[in-house]
Prior knowledge:
The chain folds into two domains: 205 residues, P-loop containing nucleotide triphosphate hydrolases (Rossmann fold, 3-Layer(aba) Sandwich); 59 residues, no CATH class. It has ten helices and 13 strands.
Amino acid sequence: MRVEAENLKVSYGRVWGLKGVSFNAKAERIAVVGHNGSGKTTLLSVLSGLRKPTEGRATINGEEPYSRKDKWVAIRYSFEKPQFSIPIKVKDLVETLRVNDRCSLVDELVEELGIKEFIDQRLDGLSSGQAQLCNLLMALSCDAEVVILDEPTAHLDSYRAGIIDDLLSKRKGLIIATHDPEEGEAVAEHFLILKEGRLVWEGSRRKLFAEGVYEITLAENGGKLPEEVQVVHSFGAIVVARADEELLSELFRKGIIAGFKRAGLRYAYAESR
């Protein structure tokens, strides 16, 4: 999958949701990462074909999604905070999907997502987490060239979120938006970081982990880190720092730190703040 944007701008009256975003990403799974208000959902609305940019253009595999006549079939999408106001039961939704020849994964996903647990409930009476699972069922169960998901694990407990991330990590033609660096790393091969409507970092997984920057978990009573560990950012008990891996291994053996790993997306995300 190749996703490209050229000087992409989207305005909401006097407010600009995207301010000249350009990128060229070739990967089967792409994560758009950023804080609330960074422009993630606006970018996804353009890529899903729901919104035409004010200026510039975006393409997926060479085609502008908002100009495609078959976009409702070629592109499946799921946005955060789904609301179902229709008074039918979940099993009616499942049956509607089952009779669609393009939706071959319905039964498999009903089982994996745990939808059987509330299949007799009405859609308009679901909790936010249950509604999110039904939303994902509709997006993932049918054949599509591209699947676009906005905060796919929002409102879900950690167990269910882990199942979703595992499913998505095997999917092709996937674009997700998330504010969670760990979720982005678990799922994607290519990353776009947005801040206030601008692209501030872009790169592959290889580029992401190429730098000698580590995410270090401090031990509860481990003491102070030596000067050789150059702290870049601090997140409470977790710090992002430049350091030699052998030194970190020694600090771990001495109980000064509880663990460490390549910083990856958390470092790039922190640098964009």
